[in-house]
Design a protein that fits this description.
single chain; 159 residues; alpha/beta; Glutaredoxin; 6-stranded mixed sheet
Length: 159
């Protein structure tokens, strides 16, 4: 009986997929992810899309950062800016292929010109872009990272 229960639980674990949440309005995303943040946690919010080659290249670096810091107050959120119609055909397959373990959300609000400044007033809207919130201070980087070490150093150097 124990073996049957064990196999059933293993099947349940392997069948579970991490849901990818879709936000159609920035305000909802903002309330869920950028408000009421814990002051002892470092938040790394990366804006990307499946059609952006530099974005796709650096996704594993963010995931590695999350995994290497899993016992620390760190939260990585990977925010896809793909269209909602591409979630099933592009976003989910890419997340599976890259074996991304960090939290992935899709922000489909097409009114980017209205919310980009809320992320950072210096943001041109280009991706990849990363918002790091550490010690209650926002640090914004409109660039791609060529290596995990480059990303890791960027985050560690923030005081």
């Amino acid at each position: 009986m124990k073996w049957i229960l064990c196999f059933a639980l293993m099947g349940f674990v392997f069948e579970q997929e991490k849901p990818i949440r879709v936000f159609t309005e920035f305000e909802i995303f903002e309330n869920e992810y950028l408000e009421n943040l814990s002051s002892d946690t470092t938040y790394v919010v990366n804006f990307w899309a499946t059609w952006c080659a530099p974005c796709v290249k650096e996704l594993p670096y963010f995931d590695e950062f999350q995994l290497k810091n899993r016992n620390k107050p760190v939260k990585v959120i990977l925010v896809s800016l793909d269209f909602e119609s591409k979630v099933e055909s592009s976003v989910i397959p890419l997340v599976k292929k890259k074996n991304i373990q960090s939290e992935v959300v899709v922000l489909t609000d097409s009114r980017a010109s209205e919310w980009i400044d809320k992320v950072d007033s210096s943001w041109s809207g280009a991706i990849p872009a990363t918002l790091i919130i550490k010690n209650n201070k926002k640090h914004f980087f409109e660039k791609s990272y060529d290596t995990f070490e480059e990303l890791n150093q960027e985050i560690l150097n923030i005081k």
